[in-house]
Design goal:
By secondary structure, the chain is mainly β. It has one domain (21-152): Pnp Oxidase, Chain A, CATH 2.30.110. Helix content is 13%, strand content 43%. Strands 3-2-6-9-10-5-4 form a seven-stranded antiparallel β-sheet. The model has no long low-confidence stretch (mean pLDDT 93).
């Protein structure tokens, strides 16, 4: 099967957008002690034993150097009520952490109160794959709450809706 296939990036992005994901804020502390965070929907479970999660970040992201250097990061799985924070952390603005109730987690990674779940992780692996860097983290501590998660699908935030 030596047929060359050309996949246009915009078409691929559109097709991938049909897959609904959760919405997270991934955060760390940089080398200077500043908090760094961004909205991310490229988060997945990787392994139960050992407990590993995976997320990815564009190589062009201005936040990349902080995450490459960080030994710890948090994945804050947003609840429906945290839509404004999802939008805030998706922008390039001043101190994103001025909104929400934040505390320092393991390795000083910022942890957000009120999430559907929070995973505090130690980075165990990272590698470049295409135009992204993949981060694998060992879950060292986690919490969860029985609140509906915020979703992202087809370029829009969504609510979970009726469970059938």
């Amino acid at each position: 099967m030596d047929v060359a296939v050309t996949i246009e990036p915009r078409a691929l992005r559109h097709a991938l957008g049909r897959f609904a994901t959760g919405v997270t804020i991934v955060a760390c502390e940089d080398a200077a002690g500043a908090r760094v965070g961004l909205t991310c929907n490229s988060f997945n479970a990787l392994s139960l034993e050992p407990p590993l999660v995976l997320w990815s970040l564009r190589l062009a992201s201005p936040s990349l150097p902080a995450f490459v250097a960080a030994r710890h990061f948090s994945v804050n799985v947003l609840a429906e009520a945290q839509l404004d924070l999802a939008r805030r952390f998706a922008q390039s603005i001043g101190d994103k952490f001025d909104e929400g109730v934040w505390s320092a987690g393991l390795g000083h990674a910022p942890v957000l109160t009120g999430c559907a779940a929070v995973f505090e992780c130690e980075t165990v692996s990272q590698q470049v794959a295409g135009d992204h860097r993949l981060f694998i983290g060992r879950v060292l501590r986690m919490v969860e709450a029985p609140v509906p998660p915020l979703l992202f699908q087809a370029g829009h935030y969504r609510m979970l809706g009726e469970i059938l």
